[in-house]
Specification:
The complex is a heterodimer of chains A (about 500) and B (about 475).
Chain A lengths: L3 H18 L5 H25 L8 E9 L4 E7 L1 H20 L7 H20 L3 H10 L1 H11 L4 H29 L7 H4 L8 H18 L8 H8 L2 H26 L1 H27 L4 H22 L2 H32 L10 H4 L1 H15 L5 H13 L4 H25 L16 H19 L2 H19 L3
Antiparallel strand pairs in A: 1-2
Helix pairs in contact in A: 1-2, 1-4, 2-3, 2-4, 3-4, 3-11, 3-14, 3-19, 3-20, 4-5, 4-6, 5-7, 6-7, 7-9, 7-10, 9-11, 9-12, 10-11, 10-13, 11-12, 11-13, 11-14, 12-13, 12-18, 13-14, 13-17, 13-18, 14-16, 14-17, 14-19, 14-20, 16-18, 17-19
Chain B lengths: L2 H4 L4 H19 L3 H18 L19 H23 L8 H20 L3 H19 L6 H32 L4 H10 L4 H19 L7 H8 L2 H27 L6 H20 L5 H22 L2 H32 L10 H4 L1 H15 L5 H15 L3 H27 L12 H19 L2 H9 L4
Helix pairs in contact in B: 2-3, 2-5, 3-4, 3-5, 4-5, 4-11, 4-14, 4-19, 5-6, 5-11, 6-7, 6-11, 7-9, 7-10, 8-11, 9-11, 10-11, 10-13, 11-13, 11-14, 12-13, 12-18, 13-14, 13-17, 13-18, 14-16, 14-17, 14-19, 14-20, 16-18, 16-19, 17-18, 17-19
């Protein structure tokens, strides 16, 4: 069988190695090569979606080879409904952000080497089914991300890069100890994630609670869940536009994916034990993120905090433990990746023209830049959860799943949703409406390259909004298994 | 067994002695200094080729003074690898003493022989003699830049600390002799089975021996000499001190405690746990403030010694294996870092980390090699330093010492900060001042070997793991 997942993971790595060998000056060639590689990865992930059997339960496209036999470590890849959407999302945003990276003029070679390494790490995290392998890919993401923020970022890039690195490393190293405890407490010792997610709980409740917390901190920092979110505004704001797209679109999903793949199935009893706390944290994320976003005058920071708010819905849906809520949470991760990726691109469009992101520096752009106004309006409406666009479906399902279990918390979260509507509309008012700000007189409307990057995201947003089953059908059977594992614990 | 037939088991050592003498003599005739260095390199390579010949030895040779088990074979190989790399570094170092080059290689090869004997020694008297030989040569080598005050001070400081700690160790050994009536390690094992030993006296003597070995491994609180000596000594010698005597110290820890004395009712785990925790933490926290790259690496080696010590703390076979793997990888990472420091000092004439700004633009190869070494020391996958740390942590978790693993990972986060700071200066900052690039072939080889070793062993550790599995008694 054609090893499609290995190709998806290692194609960017091979691309990076080839770029390493090219001379520094061949900027055009490097960019073409990077585009080809990410484009090929996107095509492969499209093939993956087409050949994915939606009705089958369990892993597909499995590749399993022994790696370090002394520790029973396997090179073990596979996708199911939980990961296939995220793999596609990674490839899609990877390609689109690569298109958006074509404007990079400074240290082109290093940029694309790190960029492609990042792609390998991200894709690998979603397809690895061996805990050790998962950890390696999880960590591989950190080094290129550090450089991408630290070299090509904004004025406070060094601070943001090291903060991101130290925060995530602290979380993931605790997870490493957790992984080892999982390994040694399972008989026979194994890193196999499918074995560890068996219906009968492998660990006793007390141990589950401790291990859940070890993994929780790693994932909570990545998601990020309040109060572990403070790295996010710095990293998002300082990162160059394409990297912000990947940070918000893919890296945050790695944390959410960890809950779906590891925390919940491995430790179902602990998941029930902590469900209420997760719901509370989720609603804090929603309300706090939205409120802080409301107060921002920096466009990008506002979108960054809106991510915090959106990820709150993921937590809320997870905490509900119901099929509806889990479906909503997973769908919200996919939709948020598409919508917020687009929002960061839109911020980048303005920034390349104005070299500022202060909302007060814009105004009245709707008449002056009609194409931009169209994209910004549709994406903002999707992000604030307008029915008919994709953002609504995930949020609605999360809330619908959570309402029967946590009525008060759900109602508070809906208040957060209202705030979110508020700040998005307020932003549109400040950027698009009113008299044209004289400074914006010389800004040209979006060019072909920018439109090309945004159209696919717009199409997905509209299609998945009108007919969400396109996405939901992929994840139904996997969510069914997950609810079985969670329900089977009691 | 009489002595003469045993000699063939120490062919590598004998060859090295021969080359050491030849280096000293040759320096009076040969004008080109790099030739002496390449001569020494040939000696080391010959030693490596002769190692397999000496493999089929019995457990006790040379009147039971040495034992050639798989354990000593592992460490002799590691030490020859270290010696080879250090010779390459010495050839590439332009700051070194150019007058006494013959003596320099003489000392380098002799200390290699002493280290090889120390790891094979099976008798506390032999261990002491070997360790003392290593120490005395190290004092001389640390102060080898005789017109340089800092180097002389380094040699003096190392001597004062070292003389005290080896003296204390000798006292411990004499107490052990009084308790057991023998200095042979297997003999002591036997004696413990038949006689009962006064536990207080045993504890005291064991602690005294730990002082001596702890000094060699720069475990806290016997680490005070490390930063000053590393800073003052010629950089290749710092590199040697950071890996060679350390490997010997850990080998002896395993030989004396894990293999032989731990079975006694000595509270080894408690004492070792405390030492491991204190060593990591002090090393890492002190490293945060360093602005001189050699001082930074000195504190980093202290912290690394703490991680390595975890493997000994747990005292299991898995722990010992993890320690050995870590030591092998540590050699590559640390020598790699020092090789890069030498290459940079050659052209930059500075060891201040701020002066590393923009190094990537000026000397990309060295900067990348140094970054790989540092990130590997920080334990980031997919580099070999991560696997080493992983195995050590796994051994700790397996032995139910989870809190020790947690403290180790918290330390790793602290450590990342100072390792990445160097990387930050090299890659994120703009270069200042002018810079002449002239990297010698020897340093290029050393940097390539260590960098590729770090990457390859991180993804494919099987050669070393299989080798360790084949070490039968462990």
């Amino acid at each position: 069988m054609f090893p499609i997942l290995s190709c998806l993971v290692f194609l960017p790595l091979i691309g990076a190695l080839i770029i390493c060998l090219l001379p520094n000056r061949s900027g055009r060639l490097i960019k073409t090569l990077a585009l080809t590689v990410t484009g090929a990865a996107l095509a492969l992930s499209g093939v993956l979606l087409l050949r994915f059997d939606q009705s089958a339960s369990g892993m597909q496209f499995v590749e399993q080879v022994p790696w370090i036999a002394q520790f029973n470590i396997w090179y073990f890849l596979g996708v199911d409904g939980l990961s296939v959407g995220l793999v596609f999302l990674t490839a899609l945003l990877g390609f689109i952000a690569c298109v958006a990276s074509l404007g990079i003029e400074n240290r082109i070679k290093e940029y694309f080497v790190f960029y492609l390494l990042l792609m390998t790490g991200m894709t690998g995290t979603f397809v690895a089914l061996d805990l050790f392998l998962f950890y390696i890919f999880w960590e591989v993401v950190l080094i290129p991300m550090y450089f991408l923020i630290g070299i090509w970022g904004g004025p406070r890039r060094e601070y943001a890069a090291i903060k991101f690195f130290l925060y995530t490393l602290a979380g993931s190293l605790l997870m490493l100890v957790g992984i080892l405890v999982v390994y040694f407490n399972n008989n026979p010792h194994t890193f196999n994630m499918l074995e560890l997610a068996k219906t009968t709980p492998v660990f006793d409740t007390h141990l589950q609670i401790i291990l859940f917390m070890a993994f929780f901190i790693a994932f909570a920092i990545k998601v990020p869940i309040f109060p572990f979110h403070t790295w996010l505004p710095d990293a998002h704001v300082e990162a160059p536009t394409p990297i912000s797209v990947l940070l918000a679109g893919v890296l945050l999903k790695m944390g959410g994916y960890g809950f779906f793949r590891i925390c919940f199935p491995f430790f179902p009893e602990a998941a029930h034990y902590f469900a209420f706390a997760l719901a509370v944290l989720g609603s804090i994320n929603i309300v706090y993120g939205a409120s802080v976003a409301m107060a921002q005058t920096d466009f990008k920071k506002m979108i960054a905090y809106s991510s915090v708010s959106h990820m709150g819905f993921v937590m809320l849906g997870l905490a509900s433990m119901s099929a509806t809520g889990l479906n909503g949470a997973l769908l919200e991760m996919f939709n948020h990746g598409v919508i917020t990726g687009a929002m960061f691109l839109l911020v980048g469009v303005l920034y390349t023209r104005a070299h500022t992101r202060e909302l007060s520096q814009f105004g009245g752009l709707s008449g002056h830049m009609p194409v931009y106004a169209f994209f910004l309006t549709v994406m903002s409406l999707a992000s604030l959860g307008l029915p008919g666009l994709s953002g609504f479906v995930g949020e609605f399902l999360s809330l619908a799943g959570a309402f029967p279990v946590y009525k008060a918390i759900t109602i508070i979260s809906i208040i957060g949703l209202i705030i979110m509507v508020g700040f998005f509309l307020y932003m549109i008012q400040r950027v698009l409406l009113g008299p044209l700000n004289p400074q914006c007189q010389k800004y040209a409307d979006m060019n072909g390259q920018e439109i090309f990057a945004l159209v696919p995201l717009l199409v997905i947003t509209v299609v998945a909004g009108f007919y969400p089953l396109v996405v939901l059908n992929f994840q139904q059977s996997a969510i069914h298994i997950l609810t079985g594992l969670l329900g089977g614990a009691f | 067994m009489s002595i003469l037939p045993s000699l063939r088991f120490i062919y590598p050592e004998l060859v090295l002695v021969g080359f050491a003498l030849a280096a000293m003599m040759g320096a009076t005739f040969v004008k080109r200094q790099s030739l002496i260095g390449f001569g020494a390199l040939i000696g080391v390579v010959l030693g490596i080729f002769l190692l397999p010949v000496s493999f089929e030895a019995g457990p006790a040779i040379l009147s039971s003074m040495l034992s050639h088990d798989s354990f000593s074979i592992f460490f002799r190989t590691v030490i020859l690898l270290i010696a080879g790399l250090i010779v390459l570094l010495s050839i590439g170092d332009k700051e070194g003493n150019r007058e006494d080059i013959g003596e320099y290689y003489f000392f380098l090869l002799t200390v290699t022989v002493a280290m090889m004997i120390a790891v094979s020694a099976n008798n506390l008297m032999m261990i002491y003699i070997a360790v003392e030989t290593i120490s005395i040569i190290s004092y001389i080598m640390a102060g080898f830049l005789k017109r340089n005050v800092i180097s002389s001070e380094a040699g003096m400081k190392y001597f004062l600390f070292g003389a005290l700690s080896t003296g204390v160790m000798l006292y411990g050994i004499s107490l052990l002799f009084g308790l057991f009536g023998t200095l042979s390690l297997p003999g002591m094992m036997q004696a413990t089975l038949t006689n009962s030993v006064n536990p207080a006296a045993l504890t005291l003597s064991v602690i005294l021996v730990i002082v001596g070995l702890g000094f060699k491994c720069s475990l806290v609180p016997f680490h005070m000499w490390t930063p000053d000596v590393y800073e003052g000594a010629p950089t290749p010698v710092s590199a040697l001190l950071s890996v060679g005597p350390k490997a010997v110290g850990f080998a002896l820890f395993i030989r004396i405690f894990v293999e032989n004395i731990v079975p006694l009712n000595f509270p080894w785990v408690n004492l070792a746990t405390v030492m491991a925790i204190v060593t990591m933490t002090v090393g890492n926290i002190s490293a945060l403030k360093q602005n001189n790259i050699k001082r930074l690496l000195a504190f980093s080696t202290i912290a690394q010694a703490g991680y390595i010590f975890i493997g000994l703390t747990v005292g299991t076979a898995a722990g010992t294996k993890a320690t050995l793997f870590y030591l092998f990888v540590y050699t590559l990472m640390n020598v790699g870092a020092f090789a890069a420091v030498i290459s940079i000092s050659n052209s930059l004439k500075s060891e201040a980390i701020e002066h590393y700004a923009g190094l990537y633009k000026k000397e990309p190869f060295t900067a990348i090699a140094l970054a790989i070494s540092l990130l590997s020391l920080a334990g980031l996958p997919p580099l070999s330093g991560f696997l080493a740390k992983f195995f050590v942590l796994a051994a700790a978790v397996d032995a139910k010492l989870v809190f020790l693993a947690v403290i180790a990972v918290i330390n790793s986060v602290i450590a990342l900060y100072y390792y990445i700071r160097v990387v930050k200066f090299m890659f994120l900052h703009q270069p200042t001042g002018d810079f002449s690039t002239s990297r010698s072939v020897a340093l290029t080889i050393a940097l390539t070997v260590t960098a590729f070793g770090n990457i390859i062993l991180g993804v494919w550790p099987h050669p070393i793991l299989n080798w360790l599995t084949s070490l039968s008694p462990l």
